[in-house]
Amino acid sequence: MDRRRLSRQELIRARRGDGFVGREGELSAFRANLARDPADPDFRFLHHLHGQGGVGKTSLAQRFEQMAREVGALTVYVDESVHSVPDAMAGISARLGRQGSPLKSFDKLLATYRERRHEAEAALAGPDEPGGEAPPSPGSMIIARAGVAGLGLIPGVGPFAGAVNSTQLARGTDRLRGRIGARLRNHDDVQLVLSPVEVLTPVFVRELGEAADTVPVLALFFDTYEATGPLLDTWLRDILFSDRYGPLAPNIMVTLSGRDALDRRCWADHLEHVTDVPLDAFTEAEARRYLAAKDITDPDTVDAILRLSGGLPVLVSTLAGSRPGAADAVDDPSDTAVERFLKWETDPVRREAALAAALPRHLDEDVYREAVDAEAADHFGWLRTLPFVSERGGRWQYHEVVRTAMLRLQRRRSPRVWAERHGRLAEGARRAAEECAGGRVLARCRRDERWRELRLREIYHGLCADPRGFLAEALSEVKGTVEYETTAVRPVAETIWQAGEDGDAPEVRDWGRRLTAALDGPDGLAGVLTKLLGGPGLDAAERVAICRIRGREHRKAERWEQAFADFDRCLEAAPDDADAWFGRGLTHRYLRNFEQAAEDFTRALAIDPDQPAPSFQLGEVNRLMGRHEQALTLFDRVVERFPIHAPAHGSRAVCLRHLGRYEESLSGLRRAVELTPGYSWALAELGMTYAAMGQYTMALAEFDRALAADPEYAWAAAARGRIALLTGRLDEAVANFGLAVALGTANPWAPARRAKAHQLLGAEEEALADYDTALALADTGRTAVPDVSRAVFLAARAGCLRRAGRFGAAREAVEAARAIAPEELLVRYEAALLTSAVRGLLDAAPAWETLRAGAQEGLLPSDEEGLTGAAAVAVVARCALGDWTGARAAVADLLGDGTPWERLAETEYGLRDLAGLWRDLDAPGADQLAGLRRVLLERMAEVAAIYAP
């Protein structure tokens, strides 16, 4: 028979078999909606059932599902067993497949995702790179605030993504991108693992529509939505109301069922499309009809059930489940709801088993056997038939109302038995966790979700068994989780609170509340650690460890003073704590206090010479200070002892490049990439080495590889822009520097060099805006640059203002630059140009003479990385003084092979600047100036042609 059409007899039998009673209004409205054309404006495609626990949300959702099937719909039921959006899509696809409508392309892509995810998890199981934490990229901050980027790979986040500090999550995302990009060579695979929702959903939506085309309605039911809503809200909203993932078939219906109202932050703009279905307790008439359907008609028995249940459907169902047939059965003297839930179960072994099995928060058969007495060990099958026990994700759990009542009963009835049973469960969880650990160190175990689950079980039952005695261990677990797996802290804190609540232990409950409040506070994990410092039973070593970890968290949040205070406090108490010296050194490094960082890394290395991180970081700060020989020696030691240390190979190669040893540099960087395929930083540095060798085509190819490995690698985009500027491809330079700025590069040189490209294109207003951006970045926190760079930006900005005729503002900018770096080449050059513009070339002659003298004596810096080279200044100074012989000689030097287009262009630009200051176009030398410009323009065209795409 066609599944879309059932006979009247079958419909009647289905309804009788279901035994569903009540909710007539809701059922009638849903049935009427199923009969509508999906194109009808009155067709309701989104229902939301909500109400307190036990009001029958799940039963009504399941009845809705049955009604949809009766009209030939494809239906899928999803509950809280899904832990991510990909899980939800996978579950929907599997259920549709069982109904003969598989999503084949999606299933294939999902299989690829799971394989690549497994490979990525293998990559994450390795140690972190010893290069320390870098600031999160803005792209990762956006992803983190959205709470969607590969969250399944950031262990412990799960449904708590929205409450995890976004900066920490962003750094976790950046680490994921680097580690996974190194493991998976295919960019599409990296995107699939890091952004599974973005890649999987369009395929899922397309095939879901194809399945919907074969039936009147395709109905999706999301039960227990209070648990899954934080994970699925944004995804479902975007599928239903946006084009982000493609068009949705109009005959797809969605029903959400949960305790809470919909999150207005997500759904506020779409509430007019939501059919709101609030549920409350049964009316007396509904409850009586339900009991009659269960053949419970004795008036006294019915009255007793109504009195005990308060009309709450789950309690009505529970009390009716054993079909009490006599009035005296209700007259049991027990005054607790639990006794009445079980009063018609006469087997004392089963009664006690039902109580004992309420102690665990989740059940499987192994946990059940640990919870109950030996004589009840084989009754797990019976337990699963009880109306208040339901399956969730392969495990079973009690309805919250029933479990809470049973816990209270057992706690009051026999505190000794309560403690013994919880102690037995804690010991079983401890043994299982030890077996799961398999000899691994704790740091590795904390990355294992199964181990963490077992540890949480041990903590919960340990606190219930012995609140005072176990509290110190539970708080120690919080500290360890903060140290090694920050995203898993919230479940530990919430477990402590739950144990305090269920065990009626005020101190434990208060600790759980304080820890979760601290997590949600402004200091995040650092606030949690502050609370732990006030915990019971801490010895000096534990206090030192907490201070050290808190210093790390302050550093991550860029609370520099607090970070230093914690590291200093730690070192005062434990001068031989190598990790504290190392942590303080990293803090100095991030603030560009390289000398102090070097001192701290040296101390850490002296205490623990076997660790690669201090050696590597000591080499890094020497490299960043330009001490390439010293850095090279340190990197040699790291590579000798740790030959697979890819960052050390890479940084060593960068030092070799600065020392002019290009072939060795290329070899070292290739080795780094060989050790870590897709190592975007090493690929970009390969490009820089090729650029230093003048092999610009090879350089661009390496930058392309770096961007392919990490499309958000702003520095690689800026490096591409640098090559484009050197070779005269100005539009490409502007585009690549623009990409770097858009990706959120922290390097102010990217907008500064885009400003230079704009200037050479004649776009002075855009150049001025770019210099303003560079100065803003130069003055901001971790993006701050040395004073000399700020002086260069100020001087270049002054040039834009001068050319716009804003001499007063230009003078202020020049004076600000002079106050910072009076001897900097570009500062003196712009000062001479400004004086020439305001007072004439004659008054500026002393400044020009100083610049010319410096050029003749070889005193002008080469300024290879600046905005205007010494060669350009030398030519312009000679022309300003009328030294045409010297100017022609200087230009002739520039015309030789190997001079980049950029150096020719900035010289021509300087002469163009000077020509604009020439008062009399017929003055002696005007022709000379024009001739020099003409020669430079011709050579620029020749060089640009060499590198034309």
Over all CA atoms, what is the radius of gyration? 36 Å
Going across the biggest sheet, name each strand in turn. Answer: 2-3-4-1-5
CATH first level of the domain at 26-35 and 42-101 and 215-278: Alpha Beta
Tell me the number of helical segments per DSSP (H or I, 4 or more residues long).
48
Backbone structural class? mainly alpha
Mean pLDDT: 85
Low-confidence stretches: 1-14, 125-166, 326-336
What portion of the residues fall into strands of 2 or more residues? under 5%
CATH names the topology of the domain at 26-35 and 42-101 and 215-278 as Rossmann fold
Explain how this protein is built.
Keywords: Repeat, TPR repeat. InterPro entries: P-loop_NTPase, TPR-like_helical_dom_sf, TPR_rpt, Ycf3. This is TPR repeat-containing protein YrrB. This protein has 949 residues and is mainly alpha-helical. Among the domains are: 134 residues, P-loop containing nucleotide triphosphate hydrolases (Rossmann fold), CATH 3.40.50; 79 residues, no CATH class; 48 residues, no CATH class; 107 residues. Helix content is 66%, strand content 4%. The chain contains 48 helices and 7 strands. The strands form 2 sheets. The chain has a 5-stranded parallel sheet, with helices on both faces. A two-stranded antiparallel ribbon has the order 6-7. Helix 5 packs across helix 7, helix 27 packs antiparallel against helix 28 and helix 28 runs antiparallel to helix 29. The longest helix has 23 residues. The chain is elongated and about 120 Å long. The N terminus is likely disordered.
